[in-house]
Amino acid sequence: MIKALAVRCWNFLASLQVTIVALVLLMALVVLCTLAQTDLGTLGAVNAYMRSFLVWRQMRGLPFPLPLFPGGALVGLVLVLNLTAALVKRFDFNPRKLGLWVVHAGLILLVAGEFATGAFQVDTRMTIEEGQTVHFLESYRQMELGLSDVTDPAHTEEYGIPDPLLRAGASVPVPGTPLSIKIKRFYVNAELAPRAAGDPPSMANMGVGANVKITETAPAASDKEGNATSAFIEPVAGGTSYGTWLVSSVLGAPQSFIHEGRTYLLSMRPRRYYLPYAVTLKKFSHDIYPGTDIPKNFSSLVHLSNPAKGEERDVLIYMNQPLRYDGKAFYQASYGKGDTLSILQVVANPGWLLPYISCALITLGLLVHFCITLFNAIKRRQLSGETA
Amino acid sequence: MKLSKLFTWLPGLIALAAVLATALPPARIRGFDMDKFGRLPVLEGGRVKPLDSVARNALLMIRSKQSVPFEGRELGPDEWLLDLLFRPQTADAQPVFVINDPDVLGLMGLKQSANRYFSFDAIAPRLQEIENQARAAQALESAQRSRFQNAVVNLYERLLLNQLENSVQLGDSPGLYLELQALGTPQAAERNKSLAGAARFRILAPLPGQGPDAWQNTGEGLIAANGAAPHPALVSLALAGAGYKAGQPEAFNQGVAELQGLTANLRPQALRHADSEFLFNRIQPFYLGMVIYVLALLTLFASWLWRRDLLQPAAFSLLAAGALVHTVGLVSRILLQGRPPVTNLYSSAVFVGWAAVILGVILERMYRKGFGTAVAASAGFASLIIAHHLAMEGDTMEMMRAVLDSNFWLATHVVTVTVGYSGTFLAGIIAIAYTLRKHIAPTLDPATTRTLVDMTYGIVCFALLFSFVGTVLGGIWADQSWGRFWGWDPKENGALLIVLWNAVILHCRWGDYIRDKGLMACAIFGNIITSLSWFGVNMLGIGLHSYGFMDQAFWVLAWFVASQLALIVLCLMPRRFWAARTT
C-alpha cells in the first residue's frame, strides 16, 4: 500500500507533466518579475519573485501576507528534482540518448549555479582615486558607524560598527578602544535639511548635527537611489560622555573628539571589509570616439601589492576584462571626479565556475546528440539505398 | 524544357539587373557634380563616412524621407545638404519639417490639413515658443511626457539637427573666401570660434604627420590658418562653396574635384571607404530587397490561381534574388562598419529577416511546396519593413559603447540569439500559413499538411538550440563584463522566455500532450513571446539592455499581439467553422 503510493509519487515526480507545468510557471514568474522591476527595482523584484520559495502579497484587510504563487526557488527546486528523478528513472544506457542525458545534467548544474549565486554571491565595490592606495572593499547596501583614530598622521586606525548593531537604545563597545557608543536614534533613510528658526531643537548637542533638521523617510526602493542612513550617537569612555552627535552618510564634514590624547573621527559610511592586500590606482583612462562623447573604453591601471605572498604587480582592468584574484573578480564599473576616480565592482561568488562547466556539458551533449542523429540518418539512407 | 527553365529564372535575373541599374550615377543636376560632393569623406559620429551619409541621416530624421520636393523637383539628400550649407536662405524655404501632431500645429497657429511639411521660414516666427515648450518638457522623463510634449521635443530636436547648416561656414557668413581674408580681425576670431563649436562634421583630412583621428572642422581649420598656411582643402572648399552659391557649376565642380584629389593624397583609405558607403547608400539594398520580396509573394499568390508549374519557380527565383540582395547588403554593412551583423535594434531586424529567409529557402529546396517561398518572402518583407521604420530613429552605423565594444561577443552571443529569434518567428509564420490554408484552401492534401507540421517541428528544435546557446553565451559575456552570469535583466528574461517556450512546445510534443493543431497554435504564440522580448523590453526602459527608445511602437506591438491571439483561435477552430455544415 505504502509502496504503491511511493511508486506513484516517484512516477509523478519523474513525469513530463511536472516538467511542463514547472516550465510554464517559470515563464509566468519571469514575466511577473520583469514587470515588477519598474516598481521594485531589479534586486527587489528578483528577491520577491525569483529567489523566494513563495511569492507573498499583502491583501487589504488582512493582517498577514498571503502566499499567492510559487516562487522561483521552489519552481527551480521542483525542476531539478523532476530532472534528477527522470534521469534516474529512465536512464537505460541507451547510447542513442547519451547526448540528451548530458544536456539535461548540464541543465541541473545551471540551475544549481543560480541557487549558489543567490545564496553565496557577495557584491562589493572598491572606490579609488588616482594615486590612492586602498585595502578594503565597501558594501553596496550595508552601512557602518566608522570610528577613525587619526592621532598618528602617518597611520589611521579604523574601527567600524556594522548597521545591524546600530539599534536605538543599544550601547556598543568598540573593540580595541576604551570607547563605547550609545545609539540614541537610528534612521535607515532620512532627509536632512538646515534647521530653521521654528524647528524643534536637534537631539545633537555637538558637531554640525545641532543645526540640522532630520526627517525619517522610507528606505529607497530602486537600485539607483541610495539610503541616507543617519544616527544620533553618544560616545562614552570611562564614565565621561562626549556629547550627542549626528552622523549621516550624506554629511561630509569631519566631526571629531579627543579622548585621553587620541583624536577620533566619527562617520557613517558604507560597511568596509578589509583585505590582506592593497590596490593602488595608477591611472584611470576614459577613451571616447573622436568628435563624439560616446565612450570607447574605460580602464584602470592598478598596482596590486600582497606582501604576505610576495606579490607586486601591475594589472590593467578594462571592459570585459576583469581581474580575478583571491576568489574575487574586480570589474571596471564606474568613474567620477573628472576621470580621476575609478569604481571597481568586486564580486565574490564561489559558484562562478558552475555556469561555465554547465555550458561546456550542454554544448558537448548537443554535439554528441547531433552526431548520433546524423550518423543514424546516414545509416538509414544507406540501408534504404541498398534495399532500393 | 530548357526554355521554360530559363523563363522561371528570368524574373529573378531582371530584378537583379534592376538593382544594378540603381548603382549607375544620375545625370548632373543644374550642371553640378553633386555625386562627387556626396562621396567626400568626413569624420562624424566617431567614424569616417561620406557626406552623403550625413545628409541622408539628417534628412531622414528631419523629414522621415530621403528627398524634398521643391520648385517642381525632388531634391536628393546631397542637394539638400548643399543648399543648407551654401544657400541657407533657399534651404530655409524648403518644406522639410514633418509635423503631424495637431497640438504642435496649433502652437504654431496652424490647422491640421493635408500639408504636413513645413519650411524653416514657416516655423521661424514661433521658434522661441517651441523652444520654451520643449525645454519645459525635456525636464520630464520621456515616459511621463504627454503626446504633445513628446511631439514638441521631437520638433525641437529636429530644429537643432537643422543647425547642421553651420558646419562649413556660419549661416550668416559672407563665404569661406572672405573668412580666409578676414583672418586676424577680432570679429573673425569670434566667428571662427563659434563655427568650431557648432560644426557637426570634420571635413579637413589629417595632414601628413598627424594621427588618423586628427580631422578638423572648418572652424578649427580657420583658427589654425591665422598666421600660418591654411589647410589646402579650405581653399578648395571655399571655391566649391562660392561656385555653388553663385550658380557656377564649373567653379563648384573644380573645387570638389580638388577636394577629392587632396583627400586621395592625404587619406586614400578614407576616400575608398566613403566611396563604398556612398554606393551602399545609393543602392539601398534593404529597401530593394523588400520590394523584391513583395514581388515574390505576389507571384506565389498568383501561382495558386494560375499556371502553378511556371509561376511557383518564378516566385522562387524572385525570392532567391531578394535573398541575394539582402545578403549583399548585410555583408556590405559588416564590411563598412567592421562589426558583426547585429549591433543595434535596426540591424537586429535586418538580420532576423535574413536568417528567416535563408532558412525558408532551405525549406523550399527540401520540400518544394511553395510554402517555403511564402514564409521566407513574408518574413523577409516584414522584417525589412520593421527595419525601415526603425531606421527613422537615426543613424544606423553608430559606434559601439564601451561595454558593447567586443566583436567576439557581438559575433557569438548576439548573432546566435538573433538566429534563435528568426527561428521562432519562422515557426510562427509557417503555423500561420497552416492556419490560413486550413480555412481557405478548397481541399487539404494530407502530405502537404504533414510537411508543414514537420517543418514547424524542425524549426522549433532549431530555434531552441540557437536561443539557448545564445542566451548562455550572453550569460558568459555578462559574467565577463558586469560580474554576474545572470541578472534577471528584462532583456535576459525575454531571451529566457523564448528558450522556455520552445522547450515547453517540444516537451508537450514528446509527451504527446499536443498534436499537429496544438503544435501550430503554440508556434503562433511563439511570435507573441518573441516580439515582446525583442521590442517590448525596450519599452520598459529599465535594465542594461534598453538601447532602443520607442513610444509609438507600443500600439503597433499591441495590435500584433491581438492579431496573433486571433490567429491562435482560428488555428484551434474546426476547418471553415463559419460555413453551414451538411452531413
Q: Describe it for me?
A:
The complex is a heterodimer of chains A (388) and B (583). By secondary structure, chain A is α+β, with helices and mostly antiparallel strands. Chain A has 3 domains: 2-120 and 354-387, no CATH class; 141-273, no CATH class; 275-348, no CATH class. In chain A, 32% of the residues lie in helices and 38% in strands. Chain A has 5 helices and 19 strands. Chain A has helices spanning 2-13, 16-50, 72-90, 98-120, 354-387, and strands at 54-57, 66-70, 122-129, 133-149, 157-162, 171-173, 179-187, 190-194, 212-216, 230-237, 240-241, 245-248, 255-259, 262-288, 295-306, 311-318, 323-325, 328-336, 341-348. In chain A, a hairpin with a 5-residue loop joins strand 6 and strand 7. In chain A, helix 2 packs antiparallel against helix 3 (72-90) and helix 3 (72-90) packs antiparallel against helix 4. The longest helix of chain A is centred in the N-terminal third of the chain and has 35 residues, at 16-50. Chain A starts with a helix and ends with a helix. Chain B is mainly α. Chain B folds into 3 domains: 33-268, no CATH class; 284-399; 412-547, Up-down Bundle (Four Helix Bundle (Hemerythrin (Met), subunit A)). Helices cover 68% and strands 4% of the residues of chain B. Chain B has helices at residues 2-21, 34-38, 51-63, 77-86, 88-92, 102-107, 120-123, 127-138, 147-161, 176-181, 186-198, 218-225, 232-246, 249-266, 268-283, 285-303, 308-337, 345-367, 371-390, 407-440, 446-481, 490-510, 516-540, 553-572, and strands spanning 41-44, 47-50, 68-70, 73-75, 95-98, 117-119. In chain B, helix 16 (285-303) runs antiparallel to helix 19 (371-390), helix 20 (407-440) runs antiparallel to helix 21 and helix 22 packs antiparallel against helix 23 (516-540). The longest helix of chain B has 36 residues, at 446-481. Chain B is elongated. The two termini of chain B are 46 Å apart. Chains A and B meet through helix 2, helix 4, strand 15, strand 18 and helix 5 of A and helix 21 and helix 22 of B.
